[in-house]
Amino acid sequence: MIPLRPLPTAADPAPHDVSQDLPRGLPPEPLWRDLLGEVLRRERRAQGRTLKDVSDASRISMAYLSEVERGRKEASSEVLAAAARALGLSLADVLALAGERLVSLTAALTRSRSRSLGAAGGHRPVGAAGPARPAGPAGPMGGVLLAA
User: Which pLDDT tens digit goes with each residue over 124-139?
Assistant: First the structure.
């Protein structure tokens, strides 16, 4: 079995592994499957429903739904739509909630990286010329709009 997130070794770092660019101690970029699973689990628990209940309502096996909730499986749009419907949501609702969480985490990660680089006397990220713009109506991502 191939691990989903192989850990790079000091002797053989993966050339495409962006976590190698992060200062030590900072978390890696959030994965979409983790965000979607987090949203599904949070919504299920907020409704006081069991995994079995949502599994039965969505016709998704309990084992697979559990894997999706834990970010271990990349769910298809059909699976996500079925899980969303079972929770009384639309696919667009689930994607929007995951998108909001991604923007929030990415903004926090960017702030954390900036502080870490500034404190360590590091260089600014590419494209970071000038003062940071405050988050306005376009959001912290500077005009990125997520639509489902």
Answer: 454 444 444 444 444 4
